[in-house]
Structure formats: C-alpha cells, structure tokens
C-alpha cells in the first residue's frame, strides 16, 4: 500500500522503489515465519535477488523461490503503474495545454471581431484626408 501510494503521488525514484520492495519482502518473510534470525539480518543488509539455496532442496527453497517470483511480479506491476501514471499525467498536461490554446484562440477571435466592429462604426465619421494639391513642375520652354 505504501509503494502504491508513493507511485500514485508521483514518486518514481528507483532507489526508493527498491527500498520499498525490500521492506515488503522482509515483512512478507516475517509474516510467513519462514525466516530464521540469520536470514532476517541478511535481508536488512542487502537481500539477494535469487534465493540462497536452490529451489529443489525442499519446501523452504520453493517458498523462497515463489516469494522471489511474487516480489518480482509486484515490482513489475509497480513499474507498469508508474508508467501509466506518467502517461496519464502527460496526456492531462497535453489536454490542459490544448484547452488553454483553444481558450486563447477564442479570446483573440472575439477581440478581432470587436476591433472590426469598432473600425466599421468609426469609419463614416472619419474625414477624408486633405492633401495639398500637387504642384506640377514647370515645363521648359
């Protein structure tokens, strides 16, 4: 739940995600009661990616292998969730930007319409420009 909450709030730091995964592994091992004190200490330091003993040595090895696969699946699910959250945020940001552009375009079009209307209203009252009569140059005789 903590990892999902971290991902949903925008967290994506791989080091923190790995720490959360290790904490979950340690909590799962403690809940199942399959780890002895020596295994618990090793988990706190640096948990191995692969179980220490081969899976074929009995149910304890199978439990650890199953736990490792389950944790890898959860890690991948979390990674997928983080990717989905990022994609949704990008899509939301893109749609918000498009909405802002649409609003700005509508505002500018309304302003252009008002300026045209104003120009048409003031045009009849404008006096034609008065230019002095052109003076033709004198012609040579």
TrEMBL record:
Keywords: Coiled coil. Residues 34-61 are annotated as: Disordered. It comes from the Eukaryota. Residues 66-111 form a coiled coil. This is CCD17 protein. It comes from Motacilla alba. The gene is Ccdc17.
């Amino acid at each position: 739940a903590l990892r999902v909450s971290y991902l949903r709030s925008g967290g994506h730091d791989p080091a923190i995600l790995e720490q959360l995964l290790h904490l979950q592994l340690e909590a799962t091992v403690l809940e199942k009661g399959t780890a002895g004190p020596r295994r618990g200490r090793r988990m706190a330091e640096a948990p191995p990616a692969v179980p220490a003993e081969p899976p074929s040595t009995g149910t304890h090895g199978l439990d650890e292998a199953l736990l490792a696969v389950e944790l890898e699946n959860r890690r991948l699910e979390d990674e997928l969730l983080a990717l989905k959250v990022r994609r949704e945020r990008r899509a939301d940001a893109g749609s918000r930007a498009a909405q802002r552009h649409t609003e700005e375009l509508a505002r500018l079009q309304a302003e252009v319409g008002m300026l045209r209307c104003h120009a048409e209203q003031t045009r009849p009252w404008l006096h034609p420009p008065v230019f002095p009569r052109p003076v033709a140059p004198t012609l040579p005789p």
